[in-house]
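Hey team,

Filing this mostly as a record. A colleague (T.K.) asked me to run one chain through the structure pipeline before their review meeting, and I want the input and output archived in the tracker in case anyone asks later how it was produced. No errors, nothing strange. Just documentation.

Input sequence:
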Amino acid sequence: MRIPYPERIPYTGAFIFAAALFIVQVIEHTPVEFAVYAFSFTMVMTAAFNIAGGLYRPAGAYIFFNALLTLIFGLVFKALLGEAADTNLASPMKAIEVYFLGSVSFLIAAFVESRYRPRQGFAARAFPLLTLRGVYLGALVIGVGSNLFWLSSPTLAPGSILLIFHNADQLIPFAMILGVLYTVRSSDGRRSMTPLLFLLFAYLQVESLIGFSKQFLFTPTFCWVLGAGLARYKLKPINIVVLVCVTFSLYYFGGPYVGVGKVLASDPSASDLRGKIAVSGYLIQNFSQVRQQYEETVATEYLKINYYDKGEGIFDRLQMFSIDALLIDTADRNGYYFGFEPLKEGWENLIPHIIWKNKPTPFFGNAFAHQLGILSDDDHSTGISFGVTADSYFEGGIYGVLVVQTLSFLGVFTLFSLLAGDVREHPAVILLILIIAHTAPEGMLVGSIGLVLLCFVVIGFAFFCRYVFPVVAETFFPEASPLPLAAPVLGAD
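Output structure:
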């Protein structure tokens, strides 16, 4: 059994899946009209995914993770729980209608982009890959070094040149993916891990425990799956057992750990590394009490945005449909739409601090949450995310979804193809897909601007893959000469 990393999803398979889900939903007393919309959403997003180029291209990855982690995972898990799909939602029919229109928006954007797609992205043309090993080890050294530097909590003034390197620790997941890919390729599929990768995996997992984020908890396993999928790695029984154990652990422990951990870590005494470690230790040592506290919180404070009849741990966080439905319902109850000020300020926010020192930072998710009534009046710091389609509707109604969202992502998908291209052409594209996996379900409409910026970041990253990472790798790991691997090898059989 190989980990699937599809370039396209067969329409027959998608139809059988969507039809089976439709039948189960109707049996569980979901209204037929709702189930029809859910079926249609699945098929339209499948078409959009295939046209966009599948998981090998950033546009296809965006559509995949948006569809999966806003709606499809939630619908499937709710069906497995035996619950009707339209329960625990504000205005469920309007919400599923808006989601369907959002899928049409993505389909139009993907189709138009595919008509003008270049044969190769700029990153691969300008900075062709020399060695996969050199990129992997160089990124690992710089990523870990950056992470250790920022763990010391240096205080830097806004506009400091060192802030450019603040996110360099994101190279660690990138190095993990490339390390797995390189290991599978260089061993002819016999193994996917080495002692160095085990250490890196453990380092990422420990870091995730003091990050108190669902993204961090999933990152190590997700990186292994992505790297193994790209390499077309054939799973062994031990791999399947480990994946099942990890999934159960995230389900049982992840939700309470992240939910309660975020609250405790917000205390000023837990702002530094020592404080975060103390919070993590408390959560682990008192997990029974922590889980009870989390379940009580889900049953009271978060009742409005919980899609399932009771708390389901980390799986509560693998769907956006419930909170998006509340946002859509709020727009209709208000009788007016918010307007596109968030999008305007998002573009303004691209101006560097060094030019506009006192520029405002967009924080509209918090403002939206106050309108929904899920935050206290004096809470102006908690970040709340929403799906892009619900946000588009909240800002501009049907026009926002079918016109503004479509044009925004037509531009984003076009830049993806022009600048980044295909993951099989250059490893820099992996970084973009890694970020998309997190932002696609909850990036809001303003997140499209961040994706535009990321396209240009990928070009700089491709330069580093060509000229910097191999030099760093040879400096720190000189005992083994790198094996040259041509770019088309990435992801190919």
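Quick notes for T.K.: The radius of gyration is 22 Å. Confidence is low (pLDDT under 50) at residues 480-489.
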